[in-house]
Amino acid sequence: MKIALMARNPNLYSHQRLVEAAEAKGHEIRIINTLRCYMNIASRRPAIYYNGEKLTGFDAVIPRIGASVTFYGTAVLRQFEMMGVYPLNESVAIGRSRDKLRSLQLLARDGVGLPVTTFAHDPKQTEEVLKLAGGAPVVVKLLEGTQGLGVVLADTERSAKSVIEAFRATNTNILVQEFIKEAGGTDIRAIVIGGRVVAAMKRTGAEGEFRSNLHRGGSAEVIRLSPEERSTAVRAAKSMGLNVCGVDMLRANHGAVVMEVNSSPGLEGVEKATGLDIAGKIIVFIEKNAKPGATRTKGKG
Predict the structure, then answer these.
(1) Which of 31, 48, 156, 173 has the lowest CB atom count within 10 Å?
(2) pTM of whole model > 0.70?
(3) Are 269 and 199 in contact (CB under 8 A)?
(4) Which domain holds residue 142?
(5) Could you tell me if 75 and 137 lie in one domain?
């Protein structure tokens, strides 16, 4: 097969591993810088150009779209879909997962376990929002934040009000969530491929850090999931419509709760923690499923 890998940094571990895995199975794979693509939105003749070259002949595309370029990246991916190229994850599904509010609403609709989450526009409703979230401590999140950035733990009612009102003053959209204290600064990332959990790791935050992101100095180790946790991860992936994703969960007293569904999960942490070939499993999934025009949503919302 001929595979396009949409990625801006070819030197990242995840991207190098995907290239290695594809080439090891005899496929041709090409890294394409998402932002250097441009499109011809022609009736019945969709086309993508890259550095002056018209891109043709691809059987599948692996989107590794950075959060900061979600809008343009999903537009390019949608153009690939219109051209009949099979996407590992569809543009609509990526858009759902990148919108924190929308993703939580979809997960809640489908009965997936979540921390109590509140959202409001009017700063005068701060006290009501805090009350709905169960009171301090609470976690305040920017809707556009990634890798633990834009996430604040407010320990007291006073600090929570100050943080919320400060964000509101800048006209920034935020979520306020209950703080799952019993998680103890650890979370679980489950890698789901094709509706099945293929790997899981427990991430522990650095000393004094409530966020467990590996980018923020956290550590990872292999973990065995309970049947409930496996089911939660699979249902979360299905709610988003993602073929491949990382589902971040916390172990709360009332069961597993989903914090986020990541459509472009990093492979380094989970491969090194588990010793599994996740990149290879992704390529095998593409081999089994890539067919011309097999996009389920056809670019629809």
Answers:
(1) 156
(2) yes
(3) no
(4) 117-179
(5) no
Distance, CA of 24 to CA of 172 (rounded, Å): 46
In the structure encoding, which two tokens stand for residue 298, read together?
């056809």
| Claim to verify: residue 100 and residue 237 sit in the same structural domain | yes
How many domains in the chain? 3
Q: Do the bridges between strand 53-54 and strand 47-50 make them parallel or antiparallel, or are there none, so unpaired?
A: antiparallel
Q: List the chain pLDDT tens, one digit each, 301 residues.
A: 999 999 999 999 999 999 999 999 999 999 999 999 999 988 888 999 999 999 999 999 999 999 889 999 999 999 999 999 999 999 999 999 999 899 999 999 999 999 999 987 776 778 888 888 888 899 988 876 555 567 888 888 899 888 888 887 787 788 899 998 888 888 999 999 999 999 999 988 766 555 555 555 567 899 999 999 999 999 999 999 999 999 999 999 889 999 999 999 999 999 999 999 999 999 999 999 998 766 676 555 5
| Lookup: tokens for 261 | 């569904």
Residues 27 and 157 in one domain: no
C-alpha distances in Å from residue 60, one per residue of 26, 92, 204, 237, 295: 14, 16, 35, 20, 11
Task: Mark 8-34 as b/e (b = at least 16 C-beta within 10 Å).
Answer: beeeeebbbbbbebbeeeebebebbeb
- Pairing outcome for strands 37-40 and 47-50: antiparallel
Residue 54, Cβ density class (10 Å: 0-12 exposed, 13-18 middle, ≥19 buried): exposed
* Alpha-carbon 202 to chain mean position: 17
